[in-house]
Amino acid sequence: MAAGGAWTAQDVPDQSGRTAVVTGAASGLGLETARALAVRGAHVVLAVRDSGKAAVAAARIRAAAPRAELTVQHLDLADLASVREAAKQLADLGRIDLLVNNAGVMWTPYTRTVDGHELQFATNHLGHFALTGLLLDTLRATPGARVVTISSYLHRFARIDFGGLDAEHGYNRYRAYSQSKLANLMFSRELHRRLEQAGDGTLSVAAHPGLAATGLGRELPALVRRLGPALGPLFLQRADQGMLPGLRAATDPAVRGGTYYGPTGITETRGRPGPARPGRAALDGRAAARLWEESERLTGVAYGL
What we know:
- With 305 residues, this protein is α/β, with parallel strands linked by helices.
- 41% of the residues lie in helices and 12% in strands.
- The longest helix is centred in the middle third of the chain and has 25 residues, at 173-197.
């Protein structure tokens, strides 16, 4: 580790021979994670919705790692048909050592996806739930594989509304986002529990970036956006700092399944990457099992765990 015990991207072990799939790798935390993995020698698959942005991202990664092995995979997490097609193509890789469920949308206006689901819940949770399930056989066949799911410290302000997962009874963009991030963390923990019960060595780990300056902030209220340039440096981490908890969860040999990483400052919004504290709702095993069953029903993807 770096001086003072701070874990940094320099602590990532050699990733040569490993294949990493990073969703939302065209910008923000996903781009920084993909770049860090490529620098360490991984074959990185940029799983993104916009191929044009992916090309720009690939060029930026190659500027840091000229010999980087990169693949672009089209993936629209809000469209389950796209998720299925992407999973089919990704399975052809033969091995997946690391799946980073990073992509997300935040505080969007009320929108229904082509499958009829509320956009934030569909993109942030259901799409990743389906993708992971469809790739699970490939992951389990790869020794030492990990699934890292990116949550948010805002999960603490949510509960799972089983009577309105798709905002059937009214929509609040902030509540919907927090619910989707709580679902991410509950999914990661439940996946760990089921893998462990099955005696499988695949790890499921979660992480959150604290408050990071990324493109997700485009849906912030206008006043907050105007004040952003002045207040941002006081509260926000850069994307390359915010991605460190997820990168550590993905690569640190000491990480154990079922754990949760984030910034270790007092409020968990900034600071060095280390173990984080799940909110109380995330620890509800009965709710996690119910969410799992509902997610299998809504996506049509059964894990067999």
